[in-house]
Hints:
2 domains; 15 helices; Tetracycline Repressor, domain 2
Amino acid sequence: MEERTAMALNHVNPWIRYIEERIPLPTLSFLILGMVLSASQIATGQFFWKSTVIPFLSVLAFSVLLHTIQDYKGIDKDIVVHPNRPFARGLFSGSEIERAITLGIAALLVIAGLNGLLLGSKCGLIYGVIVLYSWFIYKEFFIGNWLKQHPLLYAATHQVVILAIAAYLISAFAPEQIFDQATLGYGLVLLGGFFAYEIGRMSDPNAHPVLRTYLHVYGHQVCAGLIAGSMVAAAIGSFYAGVHIFLWSLQFTVIVACIGLATALSDRYRNIERVATIALVVHCWSGAIQALFVTVGG
């Protein structure tokens, strides 16, 4: 019995170690909680705390799987740039990682079924679509080599699933509203926030060439335009989602900050990254913050 327990611990511990090193659970939990509470507020005008548990855990589980997939797909770059990361240093074999991802996708399908039973068929169906999309991400849409030559399209294929996540979260509280303008608006708010962060965090002009960051491939001006465009899309979405009262001023600030990136001054990229990070947090919590503004203002 003790030998079996020891063997089980030896099998589990490497994955616990991986999660500790590579999955930012506190940060993910904070962002996802904001997304869930915002969806509740946008859909119903109220906070239903007891109803947040299932969507929160479901999106968290998907996020953990997506991080694992992205780590595995970036293993060749990590071997060169970040050789101490778990996958790069050989903590697992390739077959072990692939088996874990396959089991993870299967587990998410079970979660989709539970969503259907507990939150309704629409909720379960949308989450099922999200899980299916994660499989395509894992397979890199069967055009991985081509996508890697086009980093912007590669990012877009990964980011667009956020629209489905927004629809899933809204359906968890008001399934009849999944085709409303507010749902699409909320999706654009989240997509704009995450995409601006994606570009902003990859704006280091001194990054290793093997990373082929957006800045290396497209240049300062295009990257600045992408961040600004993300904020414009989020601004349109925030209007339809009804969270524009305070978001417009932040989005304008981010657009102005892009000037620093467009001028190609290398010492300013950290400012872009910081502003994009703050913008991501606020966009995820937009519905909850809007409710606070209305309450205080009222």
